[in-house]
Amino acid sequence: MFSKILIANRGEIALRILRACRELGIPTVAVHSTADADAMYVRLADEAVCIGPPASRDSYLNVAAILSAATITGADAIHPGYGFLSENADFAETVEAHGITFIGPTAEHIRMMGDKITAKTTMMALGVPLVPGSDGALESLEQAREVAAKVGYPVLIKAAAGGGGRGMKVAPTEADLEEAWSVARTEARAAFGNDEVYLEKYLDKPRHIELQIMADTHGNVVHFGERDCSLQRRHQKLLEEAGSPALTAQQRDEIGQIATSALTKLGYRNAGTLEFLYQDGQFCFIEMNTRLQVEHPVTEMVCDVDLVREQIRIAAGEPMGYSQSDIKFSGHAIECRINAEDPQTFMPTPGTITVYHPPGGLGVRIDSALYAGYRVPPYYDSMIAKLIVRAPTRLEAIERMRRALDEFVIEGVKTVIPLHRKILEDPQFRKGDYTIHWLENFVARQQEKS
C-alpha cells in the first residue's frame, strides 16, 4: 500500500478522497491555490502545499507545481479526482515517469478514450453497440451529407475531442447541415484546438445511462450497475439516480456483460464509466470517462462499496477479491447536485456562506466541503455540495430527498435547492418518465410561470 497520497484536486472531491485515505491509514497531501487556502480539505490533510494563484491554469492544471509538491512531500501516488488533470494522458504519463503511481487508468487508455472517434471505433471492434453514424472523422461536408442521408435526419455533428456539450450541433434537415458542420468545427477548434468532427444519428427521446466499472491489474473486471443521468441542462447533469427507472435487472445484466467483456479484452485497469444513449430498448455507446464520476455516490449507496478505496487498492496492485456475483444491488439512490447558482437564471453566485446546516437522518449523505464562514470562490465550478439519499424504493427515495432538501440550509449565496424541490414534485419525474430533453423543457416552463 502507498505511504502517502497527493490529492491533485480541490473542493468536495478532494475531501472525499482524503476520507478514503484516512480510513486506509494513508497520510495525505493537499495541493491548493491561494484562493483555497482556507478550504476544508486543506485543513484536514496531513500536509498542504500551495501550488499557485487562483486561476486553474496556474494551480490545479500546473503539472510542474503538482509534481514538485509530490516530490518535496515524498508522496508515492497521486489521485486526480475528476475534472482538471484527471483525463489528461500526458499528466498520467509524466506522473508514472517520475516514479509516482497515478491512481487511475493507463495513459494509453486515457488517450484512447479521450478521442471520441477512437473510442467509438475501439468499442465497435469490441462488440459494444453504437449510435448509427460516421465510422470516423468527417473529411468534408460532402461526406457528412452522404452519411446523413444514409442514417436519416435529424443528425448530430460532434467534436472528436469534445466534452460538456461544446462542439455539438444538431441538423434537423439537410438544409441545416452546412451551418451545423461549420459551427461545430469552429467551436471545436476554439475549445479543444482540434476541429475534427463526426456525425451521429440524433436520437429524439433518449435517456443518458452510464455503467460504472472497475478493473484490477489481474484481469478481473466487474460492473456496479447503471446510473440514470438524463436530467441535464446544456449537457450538464443536475440530478442522478441508481438504478434507472427505465431499465430492468435483465437489461442491466445484459449491458453489464457486454461492457465488462469489452474492457477485459482491452486490458483496462481502475475505474471507468461507459456512457450510453438508451432509446426504444437499445443501448448506444457514446463515450467512456476514464476517471471517477461526480455522481459515483449513488452507486456506492446501492452497492455498499467505497469506489475511491477500490481505486486506491487496485492502483497499489491488490486484486479485487470479489467477482460479479458478489455485487448486490439494494434499494434506490438519488443525488442532487447543489450548485451556487441562481435557480432561475443559473448565473453563478460566489460569496461567503453565512449559515450552513446540512440535513441528516437514515439514508442521507452529504458530500461537501462547505462550512459557515467559507467563501465560495468565483474561479471554479459552481457545485458546492452533493446531497445523496438511499431508500428501499424509488418513491421512498424521492420522499426522503424532499425531506432532506427541506432541512438543508445554505445562506449567503443562492443555490439550486428550490429547483430540485420543484423537480421532485413533478408528476412526470415521479413516474420516471423523462429523457435528456426533459429538464430544459421543465426549466423553460418554470421560467414562463415566473
Automatic annotation (TrEMBL):
Biotin carboxylation domain mapped to chain residues: 1-444
Catalysed reactions listed for this entry: N(6)-biotinyl-L-lysyl-[protein] + hydrogencarbonate + ATP = N(6)-carboxybiotinyl-L-lysyl-[protein] + ADP + phosphate + H(+)
Pfam name, any one: CPSase_L_D2
Domain ATP-grasp: residue ranges: 120-316
NCBIfam families for this protein: accC (TIGR00514), PRK08591.1 (NF006367)
GO biological process: fatty acid biosynthetic process; malonyl-CoA biosynthetic process
SMART domains the UniProt entry points to: Biotin_carb_C
Keywords from the named record: ATP-binding, Biotin, Fatty acid biosynthesis, Fatty acid metabolism, Ligase, Lipid biosynthesis, Lipid metabolism, Magnesium, Metal-binding, Nucleotide-binding
A single GO molecular function term of this UniProt record: biotin carboxylase activity
PROSITE patterns, A to Z: ATP_GRASP (PS50975), BC (PS50979), CPSASE_1 (PS00866), CPSASE_2 (PS00867)
Pathway: Lipid metabolism; malonyl-CoA biosynthesis; malonyl-CoA from acetyl-CoA: step 1/1
Protein name: Biotin carboxylase
Quaternary structure and partners: Acetyl-CoA carboxylase is a heterohexamer of biotin carboxyl carrier protein, biotin carboxylase and the two subunits of carboxyl transferase in a 2:2 complex.
The keyword Acetylation is annotated on this UniProt entry: no
Top class in the EC scheme: ligase
Annotated function: This protein is a component of the acetyl coenzyme A carboxylase complex; first, biotin carboxylase catalyzes the carboxylation of the carrier protein and then the transcarboxylase transfers the carboxyl group to form malonyl-CoA.
The EC number(s) this enzyme carries: 6.3.4.14
